[in-house]
User: Fold this.
Amino acid sequence: MKTIPNVRALAARALAKVINQSGAFSSEPNHPLSDQDRGFYRELCFGTLRHYFQLDAQLQALLKKPLNKKDADIHALLLIGLYQLQFLRTPDHAAISATVEATKGLKKPWAKGLVNAVLRNFLRLQDSGDARPKLTEAAQASHPLWLYKKLQKEWPTAWSDIIDYNNTPPAMSLRVNLNRSSRPAYQAQLMAAGIDSEADDYSDTAIRLRSAVNISALPDFAEGTVSVQDVGAQLAASLLNVDTNMRVLDACAAPGGKAVNLLEKEESISLTALDSSSKRLLSVEESLQRCGYRARCIAADAAQLDDWWDGTLFDRILLDAPCSGTGIISHHPDIKILRRETDIASFAQQQNRLIHALWATLKPGGELLYCTCSVMPEENNHVIDAFLHAMPSAKAIKIDAIWGQAQGHGRQLLPNQGKYGGFFYSRLSKSAMV
Assistant:
């Protein structure tokens, strides 16, 4: 007889990897689940990750002593239990009973008493209002202290909105392939399928859904008529301004949304898509195949020119640089747990290395679009300022747009109202006389 997986136990195992700093969260469970159970798994995982620092501060106040590292799955299960009691509509007794039962799925029946006692004690304290743990401002905001303070420093008038966005489930945004449909026509298809949507003002290809759906529910998704992509990420293809038969490089292409979008803008371009991870490059190839486009896909470090470049210059380069991801925490809440303050400087070094190396592959008169999904100035306008100072052949092109705000020689879109992730863009041209 086939064993039915315990969803809470699966979620606890997935979260334990993040808690132990042993890997990023995977939204797909490592066990086949029904659509309903998969949705519940994702709700438990994403919700617990979004509120991790608040939940963990509450948990530590309830434990007599910290759990051992080897019991990170029980740690995660307790956090899941606290999340259910505070944020889900599951009746309290049912949430506690099911969470206690999940200790069997983790093969740690010894923890039944602990899980039961901690969750019931939490409820008792909540009901009485007595001896509730006093949380720091950062814990109440469910952010690590370093990130909480840094957002306050860098964005003194916007930090609170950024934090609210980081703790809010993101809207599901789509990009319509205008070669195959129009935005109004595709919205009509969505309406016929019972899916409510609205057009976005920042991109003429963007549609935002009122509620997220499984991609299998999207009309003509398999045929490449539409793709899932944050509105902020859709801005890249328009800003790069590709034209007929241009040679174009997407230097850090995974997962492939921007590469496909460039081909949707101009199918005649000769596109080279690089990524340092051969595994992640597979997602680029899959996106290209689904949407019916072709590109030269190469697994290589973009800064190591001898490993991939044939010496022919590019007309356009998209450098979607590796970054802290602090603009898309809503999509990837594990970033709050995994990222360290020292990572910002490390990413800035990597970004400087990439932009300097790739500049040699750009034609005189060509353009490079630098972008990140970060809200940290060290990764954004600081990188561009330093590059312009060091590279006389580089000149910034002003970005005039209705979105975002000017930041140095670029433009920053901040996370906003659950509608947009945070993205930075800077357009650079290479002087014709070098």
User: Anything to note?
Assistant: The mean pLDDT is 94. The chain has 16 helices and 13 strands. The first strand starts at residue 173 and ends at 176. The first helix runs from residue 7 to 19.
